[in-house]
Amino acid sequence: MKLDKMRSSDKVIAHQLKDPHVRAEWERTAVARAVAARLVEYRVEHDLSQTALARLLGMKQPAVARLEAGEHNPSFDTLARLSSALGIESHIAVAPAGDLTSAGWSATAAPARIGLDHRSPQAQCNIPAACGLKKR
After folding, report:
1. C-alpha dist (Å) from residue 55 to 49, 51, 134
2. How many separate domains does the chain show?
């Protein structure tokens, strides 16, 4: 296939997200993908292997590999462990649907900071901000 005939990843994702089952899984794993991207970014920044990162986190290497796969949402305990060991913040807001300002979020910052805006592929690819994961 010629390069000019290839579709960008954003176009491929946008096409796939038209399927309601794919969209549901995409939305369900939004936090997992954000955590995965941040872990890989952290490992690259600090020149660590999965095994070295696992030691730092008090985990085994397969657990880090599962987190980096981005297919399963991490538990709150795992998010706390990552935050403590790696200096990663995660923000969670509980508020009535569409009213994140009552939970203390600004109207413009809330969707990007906590990853509730699942309408566009770009929102999910904008890591680490996609789900409220950022460096401290």
Report:
1. 10, 6, 22
2. 1
